[in-house]
Amino acid sequence: MTFADVHMLVAIKLFFLFFLVVSLFFIRKKVPLWSFLLFFGVVSSASYLLLVNNHMLLFWGLQGDEITVAAMYNTFAHVGLWSDFAFHNLPAFYPPGYFWLFAILGNWFGWNGIQIAKVATATFFLFFPIVIYFFCKILEEKKKIVDNLTYLVFIFLAPLIIMSTLGIDLLIGKPYEIVSAVLTIFWTIALYVHILTKKLSWKEVLSFGIIAGVIFMLYYLWLVFAGMVFIIQMFFLKRTKIFPYLLDLIKVALVGIIVALPFILPLVLTYINVGMESWQTAFYIPANSKLWLPITQFGSSANIILFVGFISILWYSRETIPRLLLSFLGAAFLWWGLGLFLLLFFSTPFQEFRGFYVLSPVVVSIGAAYGISRFWQFFKEKRDIHGQQVLMFVGVLLLGAHAIFGFFVDDPIVQQNAIISKTLPENVFTLVEVLKTLPEADSLVTLHSVPQILAFFPINHYLYFNQNNTHPAAIFSVRFATISALELATSSKEAYNIVTSAPYGPIDQFIFYKQDGLYTLYFHLDKPIQGIEERKISFSQELFSATYFEKVYDSGHYTILRRKSTAK
Question: What is the pLDDT of residues 124-141, one digit of tens each?
Fold first, then answer.
């Protein structure tokens, strides 16, 4: 750690003091709620930008899902919005909405995947609180679900508590999942209330349908849980209301599907024509079956807030909003239970943890916001000014402590990663710069296992290094079998024939890591129950002779080869 790093940490801590002072001023002056949300967003975004300033990599050093995130931004920006981040001839299989938005900006300004990801996260910190506040305010449309002032306090607290309980690393790494989860919950509440109030007008059908389509393209899985909530609530309706209830939901769903067609249609057509292998859904480790229940976890003040939220949902469960929140929790447990059932009787994983990951903490955080808003109403009715001020002061302290400018930067792991993420290994950086100078390097079908490249330079893969995260239509098993056969080749001619006649098209470019005189590739393979297994594949350098392959770059670490179109 250098003094520059110390200065960065000190500056962020000063942001904490600045936040406290200005917040107390806002409380005294009784400024509008939205202005505090905007202020919190500005300080959070500025702290994040300061934390990652002059860092060449993403926050955790371009590890794990950071590679996928940066690759998606980079590919969408510089190859096309409808191309998969690894296989450019296949459509995106992961919900692309959030990535598209910032990739367009990245294309305009010539940013790479790292720069785009940083801008996307900074934008999330800046606008998430105030956008969620106004989104909920517009959706409510004077339906009077609860007292107007109580509702305003509720939607004011909800985004703040969510940002306090979910963990800064999740806010930094996957803001799109958080945004879609929050939008899904409030969209479900508003749609349910509107349907029960009266038959939806076509304007309302279009509005709710468009929002559903947007959510689908942000992260579609949460809409499955919303569907389960609507089904649960249907059992509490009178028989005469069930048909119009379902009819309105179907209308909204149809509009949502139409809005999401730019994502859905190319993907469905590809699966029909090519087929699919969904390795991610089939992957299982025992940790996926863990129970999540905030009533038993008190390791931090954030968990205590979740406990308050859980109790609030139960306490006010006869009211509309808490009842729907409870249904979301019920849906998460139903999903978990179904997954356990499939595991027990069919040994089939179902990503049973999904309901507990992001969605349930968001639901309980919103429940905490509801409970605190009702507690606030109690002080308001008692005209207890002192009680209101104490509650606000405590809230500001907790909010600041759990913000990115709070305890987060005191974590030794965070401080260590802030140093690690400064630079890309020199040999990989040089490789990226070389690829930028080679003609068609981004379009040729390439075999490699240096995933960090994708954050800076798009690569059209023959086989992606991570089986768990590969495109379902890429048919990983067939492609990996081809590379396994290549490993067993005994002559350069045989190797040439294998890569020329490879399933799904020839392999034209190779980026090999040089190790012990061999060309080497590394792949991450799914090993159910045990986790991820690293598989090393090595080739003799003589296998890629000049007769059949052209060496276009060579260093002490990496070699780039290209298949000759016509071998002599």
Answer: 999 999 999 999 988 876
Whether residue 467 is found in the same domain as residue 549: yes
Q: Give per-residue pLDDT as tens, 41-58.
A: 999 999 999 999 888 899
Whole-angstrom CA distances from 43 to 116, 173, 294 are 20, 19, 29
Q: Which residue would you say has higher pLDDT here, 30 or 455?
A: 455
- Report yes or no: 85 and 71 within 8 Å, Cβ to Cβ: yes
* HSE (side-chain half, CA atoms, 13 Å) at 465: 21
Q: DSSP letter at 445?
A: E
For 218, phi then psi, to 5°, come to -80, -50
Model-wide pTM > 0.90: yes
Q: In terms of C-beta density within 10 A (0-12 exposed, 13-18 middle, 19 or more buried), how is residue 436 classed?
A: exposed
* Among candidate residues 125, 120, 117, 11, the one with its CA nearest the CA of residue 55: 117
Decide if 163 is inside a domain.
no
* Amino acid at residue number 419: I
Does one domain contain both 400 and 516? no
The domain total for the chain is 2
Are 457 and 531 in the same domain?
yes
The per-residue pLDDT for range 192-226, each reduced to its tens digit, is 999 998 889 999 999 999 999 999 999 999 999 99
* 502 plus 390 within the same structural domain: no
